[in-house]
Amino acid sequence: MRISQAVFGVYHHFALAHQLRRYQALGTVYSTYPWRRLQREGVPRAQVATFPWIHGPLAGLARYGLYPSRWTEGLDYANALLFDRWLTRQLDHDACDALIAISGAGLRAGAGLQARGGKYICDRGSTHARYQWRLLDAEHRRWNAPLDIYDERDTLREEQQYAQADCIVVPSTFAARSFVAEGIPAAKVRVIPYGVRLEEFHPAGEPDPERFDLCFVGQVSLRKGVPDLLEAFARVRHPRKRLRIIGPVFAHMKPLLPRLPRENVEIVGAVGRADLIRYLSTSHAMVLPSLEEGLALVQGEAMACGCPVIATPNTGSEDLFTNGQEGFIVPAGDVAALAQAMQTLADDPARQQRMRHAALERVRRLGGWDDYGDRWMAVLRELVSAGEGKAR
Fold first, then answer.
1. 365 - beta bridge partners?
2. 314 neighbors 335 (Cβ within 8 angstroms)
3. Residue 269, SS3?
4. Cβ(256)–Cβ(185) under 8 Å?
5. What fold is seen in the domain 3-195+368-391?
6. Strands (DSSP E) along the chain, which ranges?
7. 95: Cβ–Cβ under 8 A, 6 or more apart, which residues?
8. What does the pLDDT average to over 52-69?
């Protein structure tokens, strides 16, 4: 069995490529990044092909804060179309049995491969594109904050891919539910959680028993539920409470933050891995009240540092831990429930310790990238063998 991949840039696809190589099933990885960026991913040059002519310059603009912007919006769409056309020509000479294409790529190429008897899998890293847009648009309207770059053509094209694909793979149960809610048959959607690489995450200290320290890790944005977090934290009663917000602050949040409660809140910004491990290890919980994402791997990293997690199901938390054991899972957008979960831990130091130990124990059972590869191979064998059966 020969499997090829198509991806904008890198994402998790090179981790998947290594897994396919482990099974001696990797054909070619097609990417929009130049080889000089991709060579660090460790896949042999002979198994990588690149179309960097648009995405490469856009990545350069990003280093100067010029991307994304309104004037680069059309370039994203052009990159997707031209990459797909180039990919279609490449696959004419690629005897692969299946193509795994990240969502947004591979519509034309996947259809061409299907016409030759191959299989086309759409790999979507978060929720259904229409579901995602509807949810984020409502939140941005609630806060009167302009929605980040959105192109309806991208959503329509993604929906065409969902319809065309033989299978859609997502990283969490929450993401899978969004597809069913948008009318995609449940049997067409498979959940394969990303591998959690935890070798470098471990306890590096303990929380101060005289304090109640919480942390948030991620993009400081409406998508991540930061206003809900600040409003809920303001309700927590503890004489020495502190919330540390770790991550880059998105532009749309800068005018909003002064309007939100921030007493005992520290905006830390982005940090290196060593500092992140220290913050997680010395916090009584990490709070991630996201409204939408695929699977937030920082949850596993927090647990590996002995830090319980308070999160919404919209983070993929259900696939990583159990409500009430290693942390709490609360409804997205429910400030009262979020505040109550924090207060429960603030009031019960013994429960903090139980959850800390439970988190460390649960991490040992989380699947790594080998487990991710095994699950992918099971899906691929099923699809390819079904196609061979029909051909006979």
1. none
2. no
3. strand
4. no
5. Rossmann fold (3.40.50)
6. 3-7, 26-31, 48-50, 98-102, 119-123, 167-170, 189-191, 212-217, 241-246, 265-269, 285-288, 309-311, 327-329
7. 2, 27
8. 75
Per-residue confidence (pLDDT) for residue 386, from 0 to 100: 77
Segment holding 51, helix H or strand E: none
The answer to whether the beta carbons of residues 187 and 143 sit under 8 Å apart is no
Residue 71's pLDDT band, with cuts at 50, 70 and 90, is low
CATH 3.40.50.2000 occupies which residues in the chain?
3-195+368-391, 212-363
Q: Measuring CA to CA, which residue among 131, 309, 144, 294 is closest to residue 215?
A: 309
Residue closest to 315 by CA, chosen among 188, 187, 167, 216: 216
pLDDT (0 to 100) of residue 77: 87
- Contact present, 32 and 87 (Cβ < 8 Å): no
pLDDT of residue 196: 83
| C-alpha pair distances (Å), 73 with each of 106, 160, 178, 286 | 20, 20, 26, 34
**What CATH code would you report for 212-363?**
3.40.50.2000
Query: Partners of 311 in the beta sheet?
Result: 288, 329
Residue 272 identity: G
Secondary structure tally for the chain: helices H, strands E: 14, 13
Could you give the angle at the alpha carbon of 20 between the alpha carbons of 377 and 22, nearest 5°? 105
pLDDT tens digits, 188-215: 999 999 998 888 899 999 999 999 999 9
Q: How many CB atoms lie within 10 A of CB 198?
A: 17
- In DSSP terms, 339 is beta-bridged to none
Phi, psi of 343 (to 5 degrees): -65, -35
**Given pLDDT bands bounded at 50, 70 and 90, which one contains residue 390?**
low
Helix pair angle (73-91, 152-164), 10° resolution: 30
Among the listed residues 333, 327, 275, the one whose alpha carbon sits nearest the alpha carbon of residue 303 = 327
Give the number of other CB atoms < 10 A from CB of residue 139. 20
- Burial-class residue 391 by CB neighbours within 10 Å (0-12, 13-18, 19+): exposed
Give pLDDT, residue 156.
94
Q: Is the pTM of this model over 0.70?
A: yes
